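Record type: monomer structure entry
Structure origin: computed from sequence
Chain ID: A
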Amino acid sequence: MVSGIWTEKYRPSQFLEIVGQDDIIKRVKALTNSLNIPHLLFAGPAGTGKSTLALVVVKELFKETWKENYLELNASDERGINVVREKVKSFARTKSLGNVPFKVIFLDEADALTPEAQQALRRTMENYAATCRFILSCNYSSKIIDPIQSRCAIFRFKLLEKIDIEKIIKRISETENLTISPEAAEILYEGSEGDCRKCINILQSTASISPSITEDLVSTMISNTRPKDIKIVLDYALSGDFQKSREKLLDMMLRESISGQDVIKAIQKEVWNLPIEPEIKVKLTEKTGETEFRIVEGSDPFVQLQSLLASFVLAGLGK
């Protein structure tokens, strides 16, 4: 199981608890078993296991004394140079307890550190390498300065695939005595988009309503657009019936409280399933991108989406 707020029941105790990152687990486990890990940089999307892997490494290294030898800081909250100079340095300069000759500092969301703090951190990593190892976690490694990247072994996490999410769902359903239909599992995967933490949160919210998890219940909880509803909207538009297409779209958005950006994403996915020529799909995808940009910049989503539907109508008419 991967990153998030863990209860004791689900708290990971070994590398096998993390799914979907087999290559990374194999290499990190080998480094941990050698008791001589370098500085580590975990980069990748949210909810893929970066923070949990850092915790697993520390527990495997220090066993019962892991709390005394581990410091975790969230760089998005404490991002200034004073954090590096005070908290990090004071912890790094002291010796570890136990057989492992170093402590571990975990900097979560390290890409939020200011450039000045990162420059201070590079010197700290160098000066206290004998008594401390750093594990840095970030969404975008490009925001970490090159001198820090060169001091770390970099591991790039990927979004979880459907089979990985299904493993998590199955494990939770067996532990919590939940009944989850295959269709609901499919919607959970699509709604989480490979983010396991998001999937678990959706499942927990849904299970609080009923232990029998259905497709409709999950869809209601995530307030997401259903592909079949979007398909109806686009089919009306391509057939030239702008009025019905518009009414169906507005009804769907108002009834289910779906944002314009969510609708745009759903339309972009559904475009490639439409029975139209590839050249038209490309043009409609381009138009979808323009509409999404305008909504993000502050334009009225209802007006922009109706404009997008007009483009689908014209495409259906061959114009």
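Annotation 1: The domain at 163-222 is CATH 1.10.8.60 (Helicase, Ruva Protein; domain 3).
Annotation 2: DSSP finds 14 helices and seven strands in the chain.
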